[in-house]
Amino acid sequence: MTSSYLAGPLLTDLYEMTMAAGYWRHNLNDKATFSVFVRNPDHKRNYFVAAGLAALLAELEAYRFRREDIRYLQQLKLFDTNFLDALRRLRFTGDIHALPEGTLFFPDEPVLEISAPLIEAQLIETLVLNTIGIATLIATKAARSVHAAAGRPLVDFALRRTHGSEAGDQVARSTYIAGFSSTSNVRAGQRFGIPVAGTMAHAFVTAFPSELDAFRAYAATFPQHTIFLIDTYDTLAGARNAATVALEMRARDQRALGVRLDSGDMIALSRGVRRILDEAGLTEMKLYASSSFDEFKITEIIQSGAPIDAFGVGTKVGVSADAPYLDIVYKLVQLGKRPIRKLSSNKVTLAGRKQIFRHDDPHGVFQEDILACREEKRAAGEPLLEPVMRNGQRHTPEASLVDIRKRFAKQFGCLDPRYKTIDSHIAYPVRLSARLKALQK
Amino acid sequence: MTSSYLAGPLLTDLYEMTMAAGYWRHNLNDKATFSVFVRNPDHKRNYFVAAGLAALLAELEAYRFRREDIRYLQQLKLFDTNFLDALRRLRFTGDIHALPEGTLFFPDEPVLEISAPLIEAQLIETLVLNTIGIATLIATKAARSVHAAAGRPLVDFALRRTHGSEAGDQVARSTYIAGFSSTSNVRAGQRFGIPVAGTMAHAFVTAFPSELDAFRAYAATFPQHTIFLIDTYDTLAGARNAATVALEMRARDQRALGVRLDSGDMIALSRGVRRILDEAGLTEMKLYASSSFDEFKITEIIQSGAPIDAFGVGTKVGVSADAPYLDIVYKLVQLGKRPIRKLSSNKVTLAGRKQIFRHDDPHGVFQEDILACREEKRAAGEPLLEPVMRNGQRHTPEASLVDIRKRFAKQFGCLDPRYKTIDSHIAYPVRLSARLKALQK
Questions:
Q1: In this prediction, does ipTM exceed 0.95?
Q2: How far apart are CA B32 and CA B335, in angstroms?
Q3: Superfamily for domain range B139-318
Q4: A58-90 pLDDT tens trace
Q5: Between B14, B319, B328, which is nearest A186 by CB?
Q6: In this complex, is the C-beta atom of A383 within 8 Å of any C-beta atom belonging to chain B?
């Protein structure tokens, strides 16, 4: 990741800075631990997929206020000069325990815990939530879609409708972690090494005198990467034109990869298109479909038996349309030696630094998680939170995106299929250890 | 806007580049016009607020492939060297007609039209949709919220839950255009000159031995900007603590600005809190509320008569939760002298370059819009699309954010209140001119 993508310390809510100034003035800068977790009040998700850690650690390693940042803050006339001097010198020196990216987790389990002098830990709150939030939101939505597709490849087409450019890149990365095969987003390809994919839009077809001309022009330019978009005028007529050009290619010893359907009744049209291609002897050509797909619509298609081989997945996954935000929070759980608990309005925060122990059965299937105190030694269960940053420096080298993707795939294979349902809430069991329970009193 | 925020030409779908390569190989590079408009298939919005143009024009003026971009594209082994050489030299040289930011518009009306050599116009499609999309999405959602608040100030608190950092800044900018008074996002304050606001979170309160200590510490640090967050433990007890410290401040000739409620039953609690403050003689202290507000919840509060003076508005507006994406599209409508029309699946695109003429009544209230051919001379109606870029250069200086905000406020005042309803679909009349109709045949 190049520094040009860093958000920087001013990507924060003003109140983080006013609180920091308050702590500073009152010499309140003990080591604090904040816990980041996701609530699930509307029960729309049975599991979450941790993502965004690499970007966060890069931000924190490079965390410093630039000269122009201090100048801007000065001009707000809110902060005194000594505090601004302290900010100018401030670096992030904390420790972080986190779920490695690609880890499955459940409501109220910490995704990460940050321990740092209170001022530092407070200043980074917004940055942490923003960075982990979008990445985890989309990895989770994408995991549901991958599961629905039952082995058929998915391609991320969301960039045009993501919430800005940074979201576009994070959507590409998070969908790839969850098992998408590629993205249309070229910048994400460059930035993260994700395979890129894409062929043509309707404009290409309409720019030529006829659909047949457009298909021939494309085949001549990219004989090894030809997928015909066939719905610009009439999908079945488009399929016949695609077959014509594919047969011309075959005569030149070239192979068209397939056709793409982008509108209309996907189930009926895919059957008609498959028949046209098969009757032309083009049984090897694949059907790609892209039309408001998400886990719900993909499930319909799969259940119908429609002969669609791969899905272009855009807007609805790229904004997680059915649940477009996570209820992700950052809560103070310990200050110095004092465990902290907030009780207001039924939104209880569990005090103390934590560890998650995951138990599986002899087949490796996840059975339950035990939420425990960080320093608890337990005979059984795999501890999930790992030290990833110490004194503001990455503790371990950054995992490759391919390894993160493998971790997710492996973990997802260990989740009992009943939790993978997309239309009902089934809570995976998460229990508190006796010691963590006692700490809450 | 500094260049560090530019997305750059690789923020594109791969197919824009493969199509461009196809055009290039077939010498198809006539001047093309693409029209950007918003469809409204689910009828969730009666109007839209144009935003995002300044960012788009900045991208296009600086549009160039860097050396490392070309190197990345080369290594994809998709494009031939001559095409990559052409990309290396490519600049955006087109013309743009656009609705000035802050303009109200309606479904199917062009937000902007881009006329440029086909290759350039195709390459920028994704960038255009991504940039205009997020900004317009949020300006529209924010306008609905401002209307619901009936004059009470709104503050953008969304940053922690926006889809990444760039979305956070665009949310701050778009909500400000629509009339929000300020943002919590410090980077957006620095970048766009938007007023910033914020005081304390629950962590601040829990970091001190008691709520009273926390309130006193805050008042000592920011005596001119004190708003107490009162729901950390118990909202009414918090109000009494706030009153205590506010009276202490008064004895020092200082004035606390107010209190903030962040959870619980806002209607009942606000009444109880107001009573506590009033009985303490603190009638000038304001009640701020922040708790999942959007146009729907604000409307409930206003209708209840709850004594809330200002709203902190976060997640639900920051992701436009009830409608988290725009169905915004970029369609080829003219190539050389040939008008282009796409007919598939009931998604009709109107051929030809266009102008919108808006008619108002003698009181200035908008009556109807006429969608016409660009070059039509009409006796009545105000033409809305303005030339904003010529030969790749901004045609006029960038409007200030404050002027954009004023433009929106003025236009919104001219919209008949019946279209401002948030819970039913009422279509503002948009008719085609006879000449535009004839062109479609």
A1: yes
A2: 4
A3: Aldolase class I (3.20.20.70)
A4: 999 999 999 999 999 999 999 999 999 999 999
A5: B14
A6: no
